[in-house]
Amino acid sequence: MNTDITVTIPVPTSNFSTEHVSPPTCEWVNSDVRILVVDDERLMRDLMALSLRRFGYDVEAVADGRTAMDLLENEYFDLVMLDVVMPEMDGFTLLGELRTFSDVPVIMLTAMNRQEDVVRGFELGADNYIVKPFNFKEVEARIQAVLRRAIHLLGGVAFDVATYGDLHIYNAEQRADVGGRPADLTPTEFALLAFLAKRGERPTSKEELLQTVWGYSGGDNLNLVELAVRRLRTKIETDPSHPTRIVTVRGVGYKYVAQPDLTTVNRSLGAG
Predict the structure, then answer these.
(1) Whole-number Å distance between alpha carbons of 12 and 7
(2) Is 258 in contact with 167 (CB distance < 8 Å)?
(3) What is the number of other CB atoms lying within 10 angstroms of the CB of residue 267?
(4) Across-strand partners of 80?
(5) HSE of 52 in the Cβ direction (CA atoms, 13 Å)?
(6) Phi and psi for 201 in degrees, rounded to 5?
(7) pLDDT tens digits, 177-221
(8) Domains of the chain
(9) 120 Rama sector, left if φ>0, alpha if ψ -120 to 50, beta otherwise
(10) What is the reported pTM?
(11) b/e sequence 43-61, b meaning 16+ C-beta within 10 Å
């Protein structure tokens, strides 16, 4: 099969050096981070693994979804770089099965730039999406953003439980209850909801959400915010087409509007 692959690698010379890329400030050592790369294209897989190792990561690279699933069921990884189009088990299928037992962060890699594919990836629980061709400076920035968010949610928050009307945020467990029912949220959706709720009714721009939740800026990536908000609304709104919780502020962005905790109100009325 003849496949044309364009890869832009941030190197100043033919020695494949990444010294000109300034490592971002972070709360971990890259050598402690284990990444699984899953891609059936050998050239892309080898280039990705080599580049990530140059950044200091501990990398395992495999060529198919079945092998990846076996590893994920039996070994620990901090992050998965997952190609979409693969034989036997494609990236979407693998991600769907993975989310039945693991919340490990996943960045999807694809040559497809169709919005429906991006939406499907996020619906299945992807944390980020990179369209080929890409440069590895961008890949490193997105990896750092995903890892920073995961660490923040696991231990870097100022409170363990926060309540906003009938919304209860359990930061340590990365889960939320809405109206007395658990919401089935991906890590990205949880981070987005927690940030908006904490901001209250102060509107937040898409640019600020992109920087805070995803960890990077750029007008070309604002669709990530829009897609995530749309998906989040389907999980927490009574009528997603007419949202009352995550409300669009025209010309600004979004805000979270707390809803009354009817359970508490009913208990109070009963006691009276």
Answers:
(1) 15
(2) yes
(3) 11
(4) 36, 106
(5) 25
(6) -90, 15
(7) 998 899 988 878 888 999 999 888 889 999 888 888 877 666 667
(8) 30-154 (3.40.50.2300), 158-263 (1.10.10.10)
(9) alpha
(10) 0.63
(11) ebbebbbebbebbebebbb
